[in-house]
Amino acid sequence: MEKPRISPYIYFIIILVAALGYGFYLYQKQSDHVSELLELADVQERKIAQLEGIIETQANYSNSLATELSAEKNRNEEFAQQIGEIAGTVGTLEKLSQTDEELLQKYSKVYFLNEHYTPSHLSQLENEYLYDENQDQYIHSRVLPYLEDMILDAKDDDVTLYIRSAYRSFGTQSQLKSNYSVTYGSGANTFSADQGYSEHQLGTTVDFTTTGINGGLTGFQNTKAYEWLRNNAHKYGFVLSYPPNNDYYIFEPWHWRFVGVDLATHLHGGDIYFYDMEQREIDEYLVNIFD
Ligand SMILES: [Zn+2]
User: How many CA atoms lie within 13 Å of 59's alpha carbon, on the beta-carbon side?
Assistant: First the structure.
């Protein structure tokens, strides 16, 4: 009996099928894993996009904070500036309120200083500055340092400035005028100071004399002292109130009034005189008169 013969191909086919099956199984498993990984990557990608969105939002937020901060800073700076300006204005007003407005007033035949006016502070002048040491002289205390500087600097230039007369009270003035009236009769009105008198009553004005004219006033315009004053007095805040050929009063080369360095320099440079200016223009210099 012949054993049925199994073809060797059958074994081969069985093994092939088994191998294919296993291969397919492996492929399936691997493919599941790959799709899992892909899914995971997708999730990560979405997370990244989400984070990027958050970062952008934060960046925008911090940008807008920075903008707000800088706007707030500007507002603060503006405010500080306003406060500064207000403080400046208050300072100026305070300084003005403490500055005697009469000090830069123009006086005339119709407008003169009240007879009860006295300067806030007067200082006695050292004898060395006086022509006549027997007559005490006084000056506005805040004008004193300017006057002293001027006299000492003139001395350095070999120019002697003596004070003949400085502060005069209303009483002294009337007495002086009646003396002049006795001596010169009715001409005293043009000679003795209807207007210049107010300036002396302020305590800021000085009549000078010098060597060579016997302590007098006449001839002062021809002295070295007068020339020196014309060139230098403005540096110390003094001006000539009644220059030659002025429209207001007789020429008084000896009579110098303190108006502050700023105004005196302005007048010197512009070659104009105090009484030529408008009062409101002059008043702008009041706040800095003692600077
Ligand atoms: Zn005078």
Answer: 6
Nearest to 73 by CA among 65, 63, 83: 65
Q: DSSP string spanning 90-101?
A: HHHHHHHHTS-G
For 59, the domain range is: 1-98
255 Cα–ligand 1 center, Å: 4
pTM of the model: 0.69
* Domains of the chain: total: 2
Q: What share of the chain is helix, strand, coil (3-state, %, to 5)?
A: 60, 10, 30
Q: 285 C-alpha to center of ligand 1: Å?
A: 22
- 163: Cβ contacts below 8 Å, ≥ 6 apart: 125, 129, 130, 131, 137, 147, 151, 206, 207, 208
Tell me: the pLDDT tens digits for 232-258? Answer: 999 999 999 999 988 778 899 999 999
Specify whether 129 is located in the same domain as 73.
no
CB 162 within 8 A of CB 254: no
Query: Tens digits of per-residue pLDDT, 14-33?
Result: 888 888 988 888 888 888 88
The residue out of 75, 98, 121 marking a domain boundary is 98
**Spacing, Cα 44 to ligand 1 middle (Å):** 101
Residues near ion ligand 1 (CB < 5 Å) are 196, 207, 255
Q: In degrees to the nearest 10, what's the CA dihedral of 141, 146, 152, 154?
A: -140
CA dist 69 and 208 (Å) reads 66
Q: Are residues 165 and 131 in the same domain?
A: yes
